[in-house]
Each structure stands twice: as structure tokens, then as C-alpha cells.
UniProtKB/TrEMBL annotation:
<feature type="domain" description="AB hydrolase-1">
    <location>
        <begin position="28"/>
        <end position="262"/>
    </location>
</feature>
<dbReference type="InterPro" id="IPR050266">
    <property type="entry name" value="AB_hydrolase_sf"/>
</dbReference>
<protein>
    <submittedName>
        <fullName>Alpha/beta fold hydrolase</fullName>
    </submittedName>
</protein>
<dbReference type="Pfam" id="PF00561">
    <property type="entry name" value="Abhydrolase_1"/>
</dbReference>
<dbReference type="GO" id="GO:0016787">
    <property type="term" value="F:hydrolase activity"/>
</dbReference>
<dbReference type="InterPro" id="IPR000073">
    <property type="entry name" value="AB_hydrolase_1"/>
</dbReference>
<keyword id="KW-0378">Hydrolase</keyword>
<dbReference type="InterPro" id="IPR029058">
    <property type="entry name" value="AB_hydrolase_fold"/>
</dbReference>
């Protein structure tokens, strides 16, 4: 059966938050956490990877609280900690003792926070284009001006196209379907009024200084970046490599922030290999 947005859709009560997610496959659990931006949601970031990943893993693609079909709670304090607690509660509610956790951008920060605060839950960690490190060689490049998306004339397909073009190296790979999917999510009334990247949100609450605690992460970690990421320079990946004890880094040339989409086949293979290989095996002498 073809995996679709509808036939993989599920809900679970995770503490005080009703979390929407997509599920497919069997085997070790892989929790996938999307990034934050106007109209972002789990299927939009990772839905195109689900078929390949679900051949090897029980793959759960979540909507962050405030996004997609998940609940839209009022969040006090740093959102990264709130999200990490929510997904801890989600795993407990589903009877999952531990999981591989993979996050993109803001979702990568949440994955890092889970590995710092709840190490017993994490098997292996995949972090993609995520805040949480520091720039080693140069100042951070300017962030895309996504928080003005709702200002002035308001949302439009043209504005959404411009936002998404900043996330990839080659904008011609962005289909009208992808742009419309994200645009329609960005104009959902609840998202616009409540989500952190909606016009009523508080984007300044997103980040915590995770770089100070990266050395505490004990999970085997794969850090993935695009060399042409306009939002967070790839030397942040090298900083994570110096701080996370059991880390390795894969940097794609001619690639922006949205690696799972722009380098889909290589990304799927890379992640599957990392999560499946016996990292303790030694070569024969």
C-alpha cells in the first residue's frame, strides 16, 4: 500500500499536548522532528523520506506542538525544553522505551535537548542543519527574514516560494505542489494566531544555549549539513564534531538547509546506514 499523508496519520496524548504524527514500518523506532517556519509540519519536512525509512524502522514523523495538526498550547519559557518533554511523554504514552531521534533545524535542537536531558531514551541521534553549535570561522550568515512573512500584504504563494528558495541550493527542485502545501499550512487560522512562527508567536523563545552541554551527549551522533546553507553556516557542524564525543559529520556540497528533500536518496541511504551498522565491530586484523 502506498504511504500517504492520510493513511499514516495518528494522534497520541503526550502529557498535556495532543500530538499528531505519521507512522509506518516496523523495527527499531525512529522519531523524526521537523523544523520551525511559517507553515512547517512533519509531513512537509520528512513525508517524502517515509517510504524509504519505513523499510528499516518504525518511523514516527511528528508535528511539533503549535504546528500541523498537533495541539496549539501556550508555551512559557524556552520552547526547546518544552518540545523535548513533550516527545519524552509521547514515547512513554506509546510504550517506547528508547528510540533513534532525528531532527531538522529547530527539530534538530529538540533532538539535541532530548539527548542531553533524557539520555536513556536515545539510541542514536541524527542532527540536520540545527541550531545548537557555534560558528568557528566566521559570523553567522543572516537568517532568512521569515518572521515578516505575515507583515504588510500578508502571506502569498510568492512569499512562500521566496522563503523556501532560501532553504535549498537549487530552487528549480521546488515544485508548485510543495510550495502550495506549505503555503496552505501557513494560512491555517490556528497556526497564524498561535504557532511560534505565526504572526502571534514569540520566535525569540525558540533557542537555548545548547552548545554549553553538547559534551554531555553520549549517543552515537550523525551531524548532517549542506555547505550552502544560508541560515546556519556549515562550520556549526564542525563545532558539534569537536564537542559531541561520539559524533561524525556529513557535509553535502551544492546543498542548502533542507537536506532530506534536496539530497533525498543519498540522505535516506546515509541515515539508514548509520542507524543500522554495527559501530562496535572492528575490522579483521
Amino acid at each position: 500500500m502506498m504511504l500517504t499523508r492520510d493513511n499514516t496519520s495518528k494522534f497520541v496524548q503526550a502529557g498535556a499536548v495532543k500530538v499528531h504524527y505519521h507512522e509506518a514500518g516496523t523495527g527499531p523506532v525512529l522519531l523524526c522532528i521537523h523544523g520551525g517556519a511559517p507553515g512547517a509540519f512533519g509531513w512537509g519536512n520528512f513525508g517524502r523520506n517515509l517510504e524509504a525509512l519505513s523499510r528499516h524502522f518504525r518511523t514516527l514523523i511528528v508535528d511539533l506542538p503549535g504546528y500541523g495538526k498537533s495541539g496549539k498550547p501556550q508555551i512559557e519559557g524556552p520552547r526547546t525544553s518544552f518540545y523535548a518533554r513533550t516527545f519524552r511523554d509521547m514515547l512513554e504514552a506509546l510504550g517506547i522505551a528508547n528510540a533513534h531521534v532525528m531532527g531538522l533545524a529547530t527539530g534538530g535542537s529538540v533532538a539535541l535537548k532530548m539527548a542531553i536531558d533524557y539520555p536513556e531514551l536515545i539510541d542514536r541521534l541524527v542532527v540536520i542543519s540545527a541550531p545548537g553549535g557555534l560558528s568557528l570561522f566566521q559570523p553567522m550568515p543572516p537568517r532568512p527574514d521569515t518572521h515578516n512573512y505575515y507583515a504588510g500584504e500578508g502571506p502569498s504563494m510568492e512569499r512562500m516560494r521566496a522563503n523556501l528558495e532560501r532553504l535549498v541550493y537549487d530552487p528549480t527542485i521546488l515544485t508548485d505542489e510543495v510550495i502550495r502545501e506549505r503555503y496552505e499550512a501557513s494560512i491555517e487560522p490556528e497556526f497564524m494566531n498561535q504557532a511560534p512562527e505565526g504572526h502571534g508567536g514569540k520566535p525569540g523563545q525558540t533557542l537555548e544555549p545548547l552548545w554549553q552541554d553538547l559534551h554531555k551527549i553520549q549517543a552515537e551522533t550523525l551531524v548532517i549539513w549542506g555547505r550552502n546553507n544560508q541560515t546556519i553556516n556549515y562550520d556549526n557542524a564542525l563545532f558539534m564534531l569537536t564537542r559531541i564525543p561520539r559524533a561524525r559529520v556529513h557535509i553535502h556540497g551544492n546543498c542548502g538547509l533542507w537536506v532530506p528533500y534536496e539530497k533525498m536518496e543519498e540522505f535516506n541511504s546515509n541515515v539508514t546506514g548509520f542507524l543500522s551498522v554495527d559501530l562496535t565491530a572492528r575490522p579483521a586484523q
